[in-house]
Design goal:
Elements (H helix, E strand, L loop, with lengths): L1 H9 L5 H108 L1 H9 L3 H16 L6 H24 L4 H93 L4 H15 L6 H9 L1
Helix pairs in contact: 1-7, 2-6, 3-5, 4-5, 6-7
InterPro entries: DUF7121
Keywords: Coiled coil
Pfam families: DUF7121
């Protein structure tokens, strides 16, 4: 490019006839390059606008992906919490089942004792029937107290005292038999124990059912959250794929933008050099600077903002 500029500047010292020919050539070159500069400028504008739109889409998709990943992270934490709750409730279920098993064994023993007592009472039914025909313990006690008062009043003196002692002895024996016949043989206590054991076993069973229900609720919620995690992950992956595609499009448009920019700058530099030659103006320093910047740009170097503005200005 620098050699082309130098050749143009060398021809500035040519004869008038040659200058006329060169001016005609310059007009032809301008007529060829100027429309193409306009076309390339349209391409530059199009590529820049499209690139910016794709870059905006990249940022939007990145925000969407990051938000989805944040939600996934929160849900995973909640899944872990629900798993811990489920495991804790399952352990509680196992412990409560052990307690329920103990209570069931206790209830079984008490029921067995109760049935045995009922059977014993069946065998003693005749004795109980006979006992029912005798006087009650309270009536016997009343009779014994009446005789004691008479004895204290001196009604049983001499031979009558022996009669009193024998009668009191018989009443005492009758009192013991009557009292024993009224006894339920421990059935009442067994009924109380049986009722308490049944209640205890039922309470243990309810606690097991409650713990099982809580464990199942935690498990169901954990499964539901896991499904939501999978769904959000799929959306995040889709957003990431969109980011990759959008970035690829933006990079492609940016490359085309840079190529178009290089092309139009090259053509503009050539047109400016022709104008300078035709006018006989020496602009070698400026053109050398532009040529150096274009060389760096085409070699892949990154130009500063000031350097890019210098390219556009010149």
């Amino acid at each position: 490019m620098k050699n082309s500029y130098a050749l143009i500047w060398k021809t500035s010292d040519a004869k008038p006839q040659e200058q006329d020919c060169m001016q005609m050539e310059s007009q032809e070159i301008r007529g060829f390059l100027q429309p193409r500069c306009d076309d390339v400028q349209e391409q530059i504008t199009y590529n820049r606008e499209e690139r910016d739109q794709w870059n905006a889409k990249v940022r939007t998709l990145l925000d969407e992906r990051n938000e989805l990943n944040r939600q996934v992270k929160e849900l995973i934490t909640e899944v872990q919490n629900q798993k811990a709750i489920r495991d804790e409730e399952n352990q509680k279920v196992r412990d409560l089942k052990d307690i329920r098993s103990e209570r069931t064994d206790e209830l079984r023993v008490i029921r067995t004792d109760f049935r045995e007592k009922i059977a014993e009472q069946g065998e003693e039914k005749m004795q109980r029937d006979r006992a029912e025909k005798t006087r009650s313990p309270s009536r016997i006690r009343t009779e014994m107290e009446r005789l004691e008062r008479l004895y204290e009043q001196g009604r049983f003196l001499g031979k009558k005292e022996r009669e009193y002692n024998m009668k009191m002895k018989r009443l005492a024996q009758e009192f013991r038999e009557a009292k024993e016949s009224k006894s339920d043989g421990g059935i009442r206590d067994l009924k109380i124990q049986l009722r308490d054991a049944e209640k205890s076993q039922e309470d243990a069973h309810k606690k097991v059912k409650g713990a099982v229900s809580h464990a199942q609720e935690a498990h169901d919620l954990m499964a539901e959250l896991s499904e939501e995690v999978d769904r959000l992950r799929e959306k995040a992956n889709s957003a990431q794929s969109g980011v990759t595609r959008a970035k690829r499009e933006a990079d492609s448009l940016h490359s085309r933008y840079i190529v178009s920019l290089r092309c139009i700058h090259s053509m503009q530099d050539l047109l400016k050099a022709i104008d300078a030659r035709d006018k006989g103006v020496a602009g070698e320093d400026e053109q050398v600077e532009v040529a150096d910047l274009m060389t760096r740009l085409m070699s892949g170097d990154t130009l500063s903002t000031d350097e890019i503005m210098a390219l556009q200005r010149n």
